[in-house]
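Q: What residues go here?
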């Protein structure tokens, strides 16, 4: 997914949380820590300040399957 910054001076993690539906700021920070976000072709950092028009490329990882088993309750 490719996004373009529309507000100068905004932190990258806040921009991601605002721009991607359902994304929280902490989830955006995890994506940044995992190297899933590139800013101008280089790995982004959560406190990067954006310039208008900066290209942000985001690779969302595949969701991990959850193994939930029902528990019989009295």
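A:
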């Amino acid at each position: 997914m490719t996004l373009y910054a529309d507000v100068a001076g905004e932190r990258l993690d806040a921009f991601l949380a605002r721009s991607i539906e359902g994304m929280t700021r902490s989830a955006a920070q995890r994506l940044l820590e995992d190297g899933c976000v590139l800013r101008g072709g280089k790995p982004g950092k959560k406190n990067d300040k954006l310039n208008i028009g900066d290209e942000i490329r985001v690779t969302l990882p595949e969701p991990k399957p959850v193994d939930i088993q029902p528990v019989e309750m009295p």
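A: Context that may help when evaluating the design: Residues 64 and 70 are 19 Å apart (CA to CA). DSSP finds two helices and four strands in the chain.
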